[in-house]
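Hello,

I think I submitted the FE2/S2 (inorganic) cluster job twice by accident. Can you confirm which output corresponds to this input? Input:
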Amino acid sequence: MTASVRVASVAEIPVGSALEVVAFDRVVAIYHTEQGFFALDGVCPHAGGPLAQGQVLDGEVACPWHGWRYELATGRNCVNPAIQARSFAVRVEGDDVLLDPPAG
Ligand code: FES
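Support: Only one job matched these inputs. Its output is below.
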């Protein structure tokens, strides 16, 4: 079982921002919203757009390349639920933002 990894400090991802990191051999987009932290695969399932650079609104991120939107909490595509950006459990311990390994 792979342990959680520290991906950033809380100060590195202020509310309203996102950060692209590499964890578990993947690019992961970490978002900090008023509702807390969320983490999705950083590579858009459509054509590889950088999801950390997408605009976040109402719990969704819009891919900057073609606008596909994903729910931050689940990674589910907002138009076609069969399309999924992998989501990760992210939590804060002290000043550390930790990412849990992907399930499965
Ligand atoms: S690459 Fe993300 S919507 Fe096309």
